[in-house]
Task: inverse folding
């Protein structure tokens, strides 16, 4: 995870915890995709490499996901990118497409940030985390 995406994850985690959620956080390169089976609500974040590509540290997880059935699981996706490239935050789009292809539900619009989150973007990311928890609470409620 890049420093920019890690900063995004920190802010989202704050929102999740502020809304009362417990959080298990993992680096994509350190886990097997099967771990996703242990969760009903999952947030995936990645920076975009070059012109719309997944970063090397996310590729193994992405490819391993092909073996999963994500039906009934709620997802939200976020990432950082650089608008100087034609496919801004293309990794976010690739992950979102893969989740849908495997039956997962994207429950919030993805968040894409230019490089490092600043100003209003920081509050947007905290709110993103809170919204994810509130959606789960409504489902359970």
Result:
């Amino acid at each position: 995870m890049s420093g920019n995406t890690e900063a995004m994850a920190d802010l989202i985690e704050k929102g999740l915890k502020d809304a009362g959620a417990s959080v298990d956080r993992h680096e994509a390169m350190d886990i097997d995709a099967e771990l996703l089976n242990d969760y009903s609500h999952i947030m995936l974040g990645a920076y975009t490499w070059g012109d719309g590509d997944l970063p090397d540290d996310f590729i193994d997880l992405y490819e391993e996901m092909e073996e999963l059935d994500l039906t009934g699981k709620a997802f939200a996706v976020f990432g950082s990118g650089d608008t100087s490239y034609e496919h801004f935050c293309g990794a976010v789009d690739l992950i979102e497409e893969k989740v849908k292809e495997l039956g997962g539900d994207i429950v919030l619009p993805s968040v894409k940030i230019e490089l490092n989150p600043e100003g209003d973007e920081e509050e947007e990311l905290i709110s993103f985390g809170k919204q994810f928890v509130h959606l789960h609470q409504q489902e359970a409620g």
